[in-house]
Design a protein that fits this description.
- The chain has a domain at 1-33.
- Helices cover 27% and strands 18% of the residues.
- It has one helix at residues 38-54; strands at 4-5, 21-22, 28-31, 34-36.
- The strands form 2 sheets. The protein has a two-stranded antiparallel ribbon. It has a two-stranded antiparallel sheet with strand order 3-4.
- 13% of the residues are buried.
Length: 62
């Protein structure tokens, strides 16, 4: 049974978040008190990978 709602920000929605129903087994929680549906968990991983690739490496001069 879905007891959670997706917290992915969706500016075009009145609530400001996706709000897709999620069960405790199916959620991805990227931060405390934040839950993502499967589609937005994938989008989060894509965002995180892109951010990591763009981050400068400490101690390396280019």
């Amino acid at each position: 049974m879905a007891t959670l709602a997706c917290d992915w920000k969706v500016p075009t929605r009145r609530s400001g978040t996706c709000d897709a129903p999620i069960c405790t087994r199916c959620t991805t929680s990227p931060a405390p008190e934040k839950d993502l549906c499967a589609a937005h968990a994938a989008a989060f991983e894509t965002w995180r990978a892109a951010r990591a690739a763009a981050a400068p490496v400490e101690g390396v001069l280019l």
